[in-house]
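Weekly puzzle thread! Below is a chain. First person to post its structure in token form gets bragging rights.
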Amino acid sequence: MANEKIVVVFGATGNQGGSVIKSILSDPKTANEFKIRGITRDPSKPNAKALEAKGVETVAGDINSKDDIRAALKGAYAVFAVTNYWEKMDEALEEQQGRNIADLSKEAGVHHLIWSSLLNIADLTSGTYPHVYHFDSKARVEAYIRSLSIAATFFLPGFFMSNFESSIHPSPTNNGTYTLSLPMPGDTPIPAFDAATDTGIFVKNILTHREQLLGKRVLAATDYYTPEQVMSTFREVYPKAGDAAFVQCGKEEYMGMLRGAGMPEKAQVEMWENMAFMHDYGYYGKADLKDSLAILDGKTSTVKDFFAKSKMFDELR
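Winning reply:
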């Protein structure tokens, strides 16, 4: 059989895992080279059945179960591992999930582990921002993987463009003007990334550039955009938005907005620190995206592309 290299994709029916599967299957070369095993909680659901119809092997698996992970990795050539901190908001649990995947990947003789990682913000900021748990837990797993000498590449997703989308609202205090309000200066560079579309483009090319990228980080973002540039693009895509603008807010105001949305206090602090560290330290420690973009064989989404296809602002079309 041509499809002998099994690629295990965790979160197969989610945005990131689904994007990886779509990109591999959409390229005749990788579709022929790799067989995909998608790990999902419930293979009987319609999304999983749709993957099966495309030739994906779907397997029931609980990321918290070592036995499930061990079974999922049997015979695997490569693994794309992504965890979801926000499901439980438990950094210790996320770190343990990642460590289990690492240990069992080594046990299974996996040739290429692709770990969805992020920087350690407590370390990057010398302790100034110690509560960005969803970054730091993934970074600790990365360090653990490196300590095991596993053949691995570290995929670091940028700031999700969907976060811009969900943060733009008509202002209740400014005549309904569409406003993006974040606790950072308007000239803060943010590496923007369309996770649902572009995760797969990056991961597919990590697979096909294995030798070049072992031990390396791939910074997954199309470009750096400032909040001012984001809103300039928003006005370009939606002329009816008129004077739509970015407004810098303070810590208490931002946390109050999160509180009003039902977010618990721990997450409020975490999200404020997540926004606040970017201006002085950089989401990627101010690293250039050039080398990461150089491996790609396809175009990634710009902020303009993302807004143009958004369904959240249909009233402005």
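Puzzle host: Confirmed. Bonus trivia for everyone else. The radius of gyration is 20 Å.
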